[in-house]
Amino acid sequence: MQTDNNDRIDFKKNLAEWKVTIKKRWWILLVELAVIGVILLADLLTKKYAWEYLNVYGYKEGIIPGLINLTMVENRGAGFGIFQGKTVALTVITFIVVICLMVYLVFALKESEWLRISLVFIIGGGIGNIVDRIWLGYVRDFIQFQFWEDFAVFNVADSFVTVGAFMLIVVLIVMLVKEGKKNQKEFEEAHANDVPTQETDPLDMPQNLNPMLKSENTYTFVQSEQTENADVKADEQNEKTAECDNNCTACDAKADCDKTDKNEDKSVENEASDAVLSDDASVENDDQSVENSEKE
Predict the structure, then answer these.
(1) Which of 59, 140, 208, 269 is such that its CA lies 20 to 30 A from the CA of 162?
(2) What is the pTM of this model?
(3) Domain-located, residue 49
């Protein structure tokens, strides 16, 4: 509801401004209507006299030497021979476009002169071809480039429509560029007093995240007692582990030595036992020999 009220207020305001403008610039509309009338008259007269001449003398080559020939073509399509056989549809579309452009000229009196001139050219040429389509059912084309005979045959109305369309494109591009510069200037003026923000380099992110790295002050890092105690305990544990490893190595070596001594003692005992057994055997053999001798 509030939006509808705002729209009505804006419409009334714009209508009041238009009334004031048209009272001051009404003569512009009269000039533009006169130009449209001249274009229409020129188009219809050139068509009339060119076709009368061609009906009598036929094809005329070099009406302007090296530039233009005269020939008769019934164009039942759009400008330059496109959309052939669409006469009714093209007539309706062209009529609607012309009406819309004329309404725009009436209500857009503050637009640039070049924009309005381009629209006047398009309107004048469009009306010229509408008259032919309604009156004859086709458009009378008669102009042909002598240096480019494959190009479509056209008329004065087509020429004004083409020139107007080209001008309109150029004017719109220029307007867009100017509008962009205007918006840029307004933006810079609106933010002229803003504090400039320093651009952040992605490579500087560690300094930005860590205030100790970002600051120019010198920081002294103090190791806590808890950390010192933990380090001392770790060193003591490492020393005990090393001492234990050394002891284990010594124990292994001693065990190997004891084992070797035991093996040697056992070998000596075995040898002694073998020697005793040999002596006993020898004594028994000697005793046996003596007994044998006595018996004999």
Answers:
(1) 59
(2) 0.59
(3) yes
